[in-house]
């Protein structure tokens, strides 16, 4: 049997930030898979100018040496290769939607959720509305556009409707703080969510893995929060930029984030709610959800983050490892689901 040809889809047409974020995770993934694991890996790298490159690796040197080509030429090149499956590694809105839809048109399967599901999940208000209709508890909130006046009495959390990594997120405790927080949030999106602040509690993430068509709840990851000192997580808790312009992850140090003991009573409760979210949103292969746990132990849906880079530092990879599922086994499981190999 010939090796499966897997294309890593990396980069961003939107910004240098998302381009570097994508490269960070994808490079970590490829380094973890040194030796190929029995797959034939290749790379497609999209830059903010919209051009495509097909470098041998994701080092800056190899990227610089690769020839930039148009999307038309890139499609022609891709269809001439033996590509069985695509691994999307892009985190910007076009990367999660337009580029996945492109491979639907090319009839080349890809790992992870479909473009239309990603579009819904990336719009926090739409995702909240869908899971709420399925019976999942969500914080009361409202969707604002520029010029709208918020009606919810603080404390509230303000967040851009489509930003990631807590960009533009703020906790407003007084009405006088509204203008500044809204102004900041509107720098990242044309729509902003204002939602009632859920008292701590705890804050956790739950991953769902599809194995042989069955939904499997992964161990929870909990984040460092404190009712007074750190009531919400911010951008600096997740990513930092070094002096040379490279991004690095800050939430993987077992201090700001850790795996919850599976015997913790909250685990099963959150896993069941996460499965409801997975089904309500129409997810496939895997999913990932953030929850706020109030002082009474009630999970509240915050948002969906429906991607996995298969980097050892990727949240789903860490959760799977805690369950005894190696990165190789996780990758193989999702590959089989994507190719519908259930035998």
From TrEMBL:
Gene3D superfamilies, A to Z: 3.40.50.20, ATP-grasp fold, A domain, ATP-grasp fold, B domain
KW DNA repair (keyword) present: no
GO molecular function: ATP binding; D-alanine-D-alanine ligase activity; metal ion binding
A Pfam family that the UniProt record links to this protein: Dala_Dala_lig_C
Keyword Lipoprotein: no
InterPro entries: ATP-grasp, ATP_grasp_subdomain_1, Dala_Dala_lig_C
Keywords: ATP-binding, Ligase, Nucleotide-binding
Annotated ranges, domain ATP-grasp: 128-336
PANTHER family attached to this UniProt entry: D-ALANINE--D-ALANINE LIGASE (PTHR23132), D-ALANINE--D-ALANINE LIGASE B (PTHR23132:SF23)
Protein name: D-alanine--D-alanine ligase
Organism field: Umezakia ovalisporum FSS-62
């Amino acid at each position: 049997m010939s090796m499966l040809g897997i294309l890593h889809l990396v980069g961003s047409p939107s910004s240098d930030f998302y381009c570097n974020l994508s490269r960070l995770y994808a490079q970590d993934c490829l380094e973890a898979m040194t030796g190929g694991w029995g797959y034939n890996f290749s790379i497609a790298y999209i830059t903010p100018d919209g051009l495509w490159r097909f470098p041998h690796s994701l080092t800056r040197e190899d990227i610089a040496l690769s020839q930039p080509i148009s999307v038309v030429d890139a499609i022609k090149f891709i269809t001439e290769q033996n590509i069985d499956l695509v691994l999307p590694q892009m985190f910007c809105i076009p990367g999660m939607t337009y580029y996945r839809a492109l491979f639907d048109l090319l009839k080349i399967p890809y790992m992870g959720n479909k473009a239309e599901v990603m579009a819904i999940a990336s719009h926090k208000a739409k995702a909240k509305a869908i899971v709420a209709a399925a019976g999942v508890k969500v914080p009361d909130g409202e969707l604002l556009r520029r010029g709208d006046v918020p009606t919810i009495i603080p404390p509230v959390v303000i967040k851009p409707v489509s930003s990631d990594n807590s960009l533009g997120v703020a906790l407003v405790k007084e009405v006088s703080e509204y203008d500044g927080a809204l102004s900041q949030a509107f720098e990242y999106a044309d729509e902003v969510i204002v939602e009632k602040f859920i008292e701590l509690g705890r804050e956790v993430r739950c991953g769902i893995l599809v194995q042989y068509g069955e939904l499997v709840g992964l161990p929870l990851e909990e984040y460092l929060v404190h009712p007074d000192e750190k009531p919400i997580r911010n951008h600096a808790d997740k990513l930092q930029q070094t002096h040379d312009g490279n991004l690095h992850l800050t939430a993987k140090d077992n201090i700001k984030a850790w795996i919850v003991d599976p015997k913790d009573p909250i685990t099963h409760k959150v896993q069941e709610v996460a499965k409801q979210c997975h089904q309500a949103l129409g997810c496939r292969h895997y999913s990932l959800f953030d929850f706020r746990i109030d002082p009474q132990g009630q999970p509240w849906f915050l948002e969906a983050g429906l991607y996995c880079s298969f980097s050892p530092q990727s949240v789903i990879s860490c959760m799977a490892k805690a369950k005894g599922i190696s990165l190789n086994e996780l990758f193989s499981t999702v590959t089989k689901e994507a190719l519908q190999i259930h035998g």
